[in-house]
């Protein structure tokens, strides 16, 4: 740790002591409260210069190195601030894609509004295009200066609260399925757009589905060329550079007291079985923190390999499942009685059934554990891919 | 003297080729001494190389990777204890001998037995054995009459029981509080070494398993093409990578506690055992024969699980510590 980073750490810590919201978990008992808190906290962070440290230096609040960003997020985790769930897609996915593919005019139009609080969501997945994203079917037909878009999108994080959407559509059925995709910027207030929140199994509503019925999108709101959508989408999907899992792992480490409290409340401080489970969990969390840390160090050094990120994500998702399951187990019958959830409360809220159910978010979303295992086996370890063509017995020839 | 982890790994691999499993014991021991591995942790002013935790970690991983026989872990414990024995007149002489490869050994057991030592590698070749008592650490001469060879299932290690003659004179290396502190340091060093050995072995058997899956064909395709098997390999790689990251993080943490080192050893040996178990299964019929190398890794993994205190003991202690520290 260099002196400059240590100085930054102390600066962030002092700033958070003065500005971090207090009592927010108790406050966020509804979506309205969640939105209010998220908007205020984002504005505070933007004012303090900590909302978009990963942006290029020419934009306000940007220009921080990965090492500096790591310090900032470690301090956020330490102070247990609310995570920026509402603006996450805007500051990472939308901004990074615009920086890489947007024209000067597109950047000038959209980037400053993100700092003012404009919310973006992502319209990639569809009911029949999940892990196999390139098979998506939402159709865009060019008519003069506009595209006419019809289809349905699913798993749009914060889609019901968003203003804009990063939309991946099909403009052609010719050739490889990736080659027929185009990337558009959709105004969710346009005519023909319907957003419907999806109630997750623990009761929160972090996702929406979007229905697009003859929606008009101006051609000037296209990113990249027609047919280049798959390449643009790769920028979106790789916009987050390993900091989130580092932060989340640190938060899980910091939340161990919630399980410790359950052990103490149950008078089980000397139960060897429970102590072993707790010791094993703490060790696995430390291992996850260590691999996330090493991943970022490799990335800073330019030594990241394809598949390394999948190891971090799989490590985190499996450990989170164990964390929440131990909480649920120790919670006993109390955990079975329904308690109102904290909206946007993060992965460890102490509402154990909700936390356990919510932990699936990391084993399924953002590339399921099974997809991560494919990537690790086929791309990191170079094991052969499965044959692409197949027929089931009984299928018509 | 300072070398990067990659340079150290490169040197270690040149010494012990992972393709040459269970190399000859006498040649290996000569090579270990020749490479300076026995002197690497000793400060330069005492004739050592003054290398730190990176070198130790890489060395133990290399020894584990090729299933190298011999008392390296035990000998390094003796050398650490000698290094700390500032007041002993014979210290420099003993240290020179030990660094040169004259075998001096120590117990790798996780618990002590009244009247003797267990799990002492290569005691029949050793001139001295380290005896760690409550408030005294001593180097005692080995009397061949007091040795009992214990044939372990793991044939890559040779363990002995030793009856200690309390009337024999030895060299006192530390006493009182200093002995207590040194005993804890030695325990942490043993746990770290066993962890490195386990990670090296796990890495080797995982690679060999992947190679086998890529070579072996059934149903007109390499086994490596089946997703059911690929996913198991991906899980193994993930456990191993995270365990290795934890190994370096704890090894380099100056504030690490004994319970945390114990939990590291519990974790890395569990990962090794699990990967070795899976390796036998994924090799199918050949995996459960003596003709193939899988069993060598599985048996060394199982022995590593038992040496230095088992997972139950360390996880309980780590849980107790984490419980005491975890407050809102």
UniProtKB/TrEMBL annotation, chain A:
Pfam families in the record: Acyl-CoA_dh_1, Acyl-CoA_dh_M, Acyl-CoA_dh_N
A molecular-function term among this protein's GO annotations: flavin adenine dinucleotide binding
Cofactor(s) the protein requires to work: FAD
Domain Acyl-CoA dehydrogenase/oxidase N-terminal: 2-118
Domain Acyl-CoA oxidase/dehydrogenase middle: 121-215
Keyword set includes Flavoprotein: yes
SUPFAM superfamilies, sorted: Acyl-CoA dehydrogenase C-terminal domain-like (SSF47203), Acyl-CoA dehydrogenase NM domain-like (SSF56645)
Gene3D superfamilies per the UniProt record, alphabetical: Acyl-CoA dehydrogenase/oxidase, N-terminal domain, Butyryl-CoA Dehydrogenase, subunit A, domain 2, Butyryl-CoA Dehydrogenase, subunit A, domain 3
Domain Acyl-CoA dehydrogenase/oxidase C-terminal per the UniProt entry, residue ranges: 227-381
Cellular component per GO, a single term: plasma membrane
Keyword Electron transport tagged: no
Source organism, top-level taxon: Bacteria
Entries under InterPro entries matching the protein: Acyl-CoA_Oxase/DH_mid-dom (IPR006091), Acyl-CoA_Oxase/DH_mid-dom_sf (IPR046373), AcylCo_DH-like_C (IPR036250), AcylCo_DH/oxidase_C (IPR009075), AcylCoA_DH/ox_N (IPR013786), AcylCoA_DH/ox_N_sf (IPR037069), AcylCoA_DH/oxidase_NM_dom_sf (IPR009100), Mycobact_Acyl-CoA_DH (IPR052161)
Keywords: FAD, Flavoprotein, Oxidoreductase
Signal peptide: none
Family to which this protein belongs: Belongs to the acyl-CoA dehydrogenase family.
Record-given protein name: Alkylation response protein AidB-like acyl-CoA dehydrogenase
Gene source species: Sphingobium boeckii
TrEMBL record, chain B:
Acyl-CoA dehydrogenase/oxidase C-terminal domain location: 184-312
InterPro entries hit by this protein: AcylCo_DH-like_C, AcylCo_DH/oxidase_C, AcylCoA_DH/ox_N, AcylCoA_DH/ox_N_sf, AcylCoA_DH/oxidase_NM_dom_sf
DNA repair found in the keyword field: no
Keywords tagged on the record: FAD, Flavoprotein, Oxidoreductase
GO molecular function, one term: acyl-CoA dehydrogenase activity
Domain of life: Bacteria
Domain (Acyl-CoA dehydrogenase/oxidase N-terminal): residue spans on this chain: 7-79
Pfam families: Acyl-CoA_dh_1, Acyl-CoA_dh_N
Cofactor(s) of this protein: FAD
UniProt similarity note: Belongs to the acyl-CoA dehydrogenase family.
This protein's name: Alkylation response protein AidB-like acyl-CoA dehydrogenase
Organism name: Sphingobium boeckii
